[in-house]
Amino acid sequence: MHQKRLSAPRTYKVPRKVKKWIVKPSPGPHDKDAVPLLVIVRDFLELADTAREARRVIAKGEILVDGVVRKDYKFPVGLFDIISVPKMELNYRIVFDEKGRYVPIEVEDHDRKLYRINNKTIVKGGKVQLNLFDGTNILASNEYKTKDSILLKIPEKEILQHLKFEEGALVMVTGGTHAGEIGRLKSYKVVRGSAPNLVTIEIDGKEYTTIEQYIFVVGSKDDEKPVIDLGV
């Protein structure tokens, strides 16, 4: 299934007027802004010149996403995903550029990925399940809270670090006009009714207010830089 390039999400860093159609991602991880693996291979990493070549590379199992071989050329790829090409010893993390579009950066810490906790549920046996931002679910203790972030070793999904959603935490904006920018969480305001809660952050000495859904904790209040390589 395809979609028109002009109507593709703004996270797609691809020419809009060269061709009319572009591949649409399959249902799966991430949200509607996910990019299909074919576009990552052909347009982002330039490992193929055509869609046919990209599909062939993917079908041969030469591309890993978060340490797992993916052969579906429509597999959805999103923020902080790790794209690996073992044959070429290449590893990339998907991050934002200055315009809020997804771009790959080559990284060495490709064995870890940062996840935001979107929700928690109690499953069979009374165990706590963390529902993460990209659709991943893992079992953990009840010490982790919604909006916190956890650093996982991939593909094992082993928790390496817990980053709390709290004043002073290092955060990244994931939506709106400041998407991709990093700052400090200054305050959090719970809004009554159906309106989203608000977060005030400080970026380069200036304060901005955005909705909580656009905030992703990338470091503790004691960290001077994100706990993963974001190319900044």
UniProtKB/TrEMBL annotation:
Keyword RNA-binding in annotation: yes
InterPro entries associated with the record: Rib_uL2_dom2, Ribosomal_eS4, Ribosomal_eS4_central_region, Ribosomal_eS4_central_sf, Ribosomal_eS4_KOW, Ribosomal_eS4_N, Ribosomal_eS4_N_CS, S4_RNA-bd
Name by which UniProt lists this protein: Small ribosomal subunit protein eS4
Start and end residues of each RNA-binding S4 domain: 37-99
Keyword Ribosomal protein: yes
HAMAP family listed in its UniProt record: Ribosomal_eS4
Keywords of this entry: Ribonucleoprotein, Ribosomal protein, RNA-binding, rRNA-binding
SMART domains on file: S4 (SM00363)
Superkingdom of origin: Archaea
Pfam family, one: Ribosomal_S4e
Species: Geoglobus ahangari
GO MF term set: rRNA binding; structural constituent of ribosome
Gene: rps4e
UniProt GO cellular component terms: cytosolic small ribosomal subunit
Protein family membership: Belongs to the eukaryotic ribosomal protein eS4 family.
SUPFAM superfamilies reported in the protein's UniProt record: Alpha-L RNA-binding motif (SSF55174)
Biological processes per GO annotation: translation
